[in-house]
Amino acid sequence: MNGADALIRTAIASGVGVCFANPGTTEMPLVAALDRATGLRPVLALFEGVCTGAADGYARLSERPAMTLLHLGPGFANGIANLHNARRARSPIVNVIGDHATWHLAADAPLTSDIVSLANPVSGWVRSVRRVEEVAADTAAAIEASLAPPGQVATLIVPADCQWSDAEGAAAPARRTAPAAVPADRIERVARALRDGDAALLLGGVALRSTALRAAARVRAASNARLIHDVFVARLERGADLPAIERLPYFPEQAIAALAKLRTLVLVGARDPVSFFGYPNVPSHLAPEACERIVLAAPDEDAVGALEALADALGAPREVPALSNLERPRVASGALDVATLGQNVAALQPEGAIVVDEAATSGAVWFALAGGAPRHTVLGLTGGAIGQGLPTAVGAAIACPQRKVIALQADGSGMYTAQALWTMARESLDVLVVVCANRAYRILQLEVARAGIAEPGPAARGLTELSNPALDWCALARGMGVPSVRATDADSFAQEFARAFADPGPALIEALL
Ligand SMILES: Cc1ncc(C[n+]2csc(CCOP(=O)(O)OP(=O)(O)O)c2C)c(N)n1
Q: The pTM is what?
C-alpha cells in the first residue's frame, strides 16, 4: 500500500462516497488508488468550479463529507468561487490537492505556487502533508475537521512523493462531533423576550429543515413571533405540509422595511442579517439599531433541540397545523415571462423535487408561488458567487438519485460553469435544467437604474446585455450530450416541463423570456 491507498481507504472508512475530480500529474497515484479501492465513486468535471460546486450540492443533501480532487494551485484556484459559496453554506467538503514532490518544490517548476495562501480564505482548516507516514492520519483529521459542526471546508495538500511512497495503512475513521446543546437559561431568556411581542426568529442552517420548522411553528403559535429566513439559503425544506415562513427581500430598502417594527430578533443558526452590498445612506444591518438581537443557537449549536425546548418553555401545543394557506397555482398560458415561467414551475414541479435556485431575477415569482407546491427542497446561492447552480445540481443529483433535480438557471450565471452539463450527461443524472434566457445581466441593469443612471451609455449597456451574439443554450446542451428544447410561450413551456418528468435523465429547456 502506498500513501495514496492510505488516503483513499481512510476516506472510504470515514464515509466519503464520491470524489469530484479534475486531476493532473501530481494526483496520478491517487487516481490509480481509486482503481484499487471500492466504495469511492470518481466523477470527472471539466472545470474545477464544477467539482467544488458539485461537492457543495452533494454535501448539502447527503450530510456526508464531499471530496474533491484538484490539481495544484491553479486547479484549486479555478474552484475557489464555489468553495466561497460552500463556506457560506457551511458544507462539509474535503479538498485533496496534489502538490509537487517535496524535493521538487525548490526547483520552482512552472506549476509551483503558494497553495496554502490560495486555500486559506475559503477553508476553515488547511494542512500540508509532510511525510508519507502522516497521510492517513492527516486525511482522517481533514474529514473530521470538515464535519465539525456546523460543517466547513477542509483542504489537504498532498505532495506527490507522499502519495507514491510506501505507507503503513489506513487511519481509524474520522469521528463526527455532535452540535453543542443550548443551555437552559438561554432558552428561558428567549422565551421571556418573545412574550414581550414584536419579535421574529431568523432561521438558518439546520433550522430550515422539517423537524426544526415544525418546532418553530409551535413557537410561532405560542408567541406570535414571526418566522423569517435569509434571502439565500443553503437548504430549505418547503411545500404544502410544512409551515410557511417569510423570506427576507433581496434589496436592502425592502428588507429594512420588512424588519422595521421588530423589537427582538432571535437568531437560530443564522447571522444578524446584512445588506448584500453597501449603498449610499443605507445601513449595513437590516434590523433596526434598537432591535435587540438574541442568539438562541449559534451555527455550531443544536438549533433543533433549542427550538423544541423553546416551544415547550412557551407551553406550545405539541402539534400545530402547517398554517400554510398557500395554494398551488394553476398552469398559466400565454406569453412566457418571469411570472408565467414561475407559475408553471410551481404548478407542475413534482413531489420531492430538489430545486437549485440560481434563477436570479427570474426566480422571485416561482419562489413566492412554490410555497403551495408539494414538498420540495430549495438550494440557494449562499455566497453570491454566480456559477453555482449547474454544479450544485450535479452534486444534488448524485446525493439523491431517487429525486428529480430542477436547476432554475439564469443564463448569465449558467455560462460560468456550463461544463456541468457534460457531467450531467456522462453520469446520466436526473436533472432538468430550465435556463431563464433573458439574454441580459438583468440584475446589473437594475443596479444601473438604482445608481440613478436613467440613460445607460454604451459601456453600461454593452456590459449588461448578453445579445450579439445571442447564446444558443439548446446547441450548447446538445454539444455536451444533454437533450434540449426551446420554449417561447407559457403553454409549450408547461408541456415540455411536464414531459421532462416522465423521462428521467438530464434535459434542458431554454425558456426564452
Ligand atoms: C463570480 C461572480 N462574478 C460576477 C458577479 C457579478 N454579478 C452578479 S449578478 C451578475 C449577472 C447575473 O445575470 P444572470 O445570471 O443572467 O441573471 P439575471 O440578473 O439576468 O436574472 C453578475 C455578473 C458575481 N456575483 N459573482
A: 0.98
